[in-house]
Amino acid sequence: MASPDKRFIIEFVKVGAYVKVSAIDPTTRIEASIVGDPSMSQSTLERTAVQKLNYVLNKRKKTD
Description:
Number of domains: 1
Order of helices and strands: EEEH
Radius of gyration: 12 Å
Structural class: alpha+beta
Low-confidence stretches: none
Number of helices: 1
Largest sheet: 3 strands, antiparallel
């Protein structure tokens, strides 16, 4: 899991009736995206995208 002080780039893009949230690790340039309901809070969508990015980063560590 990423350290608590780890920073990510977060991007919100409204696509029709949904919002795409991307979380990018600037060090590795790995990106993970989710699609969510725009009525959900920004913090919830951001937290979910960061959790997915942490999952992807941890999975890549195990295969290296």
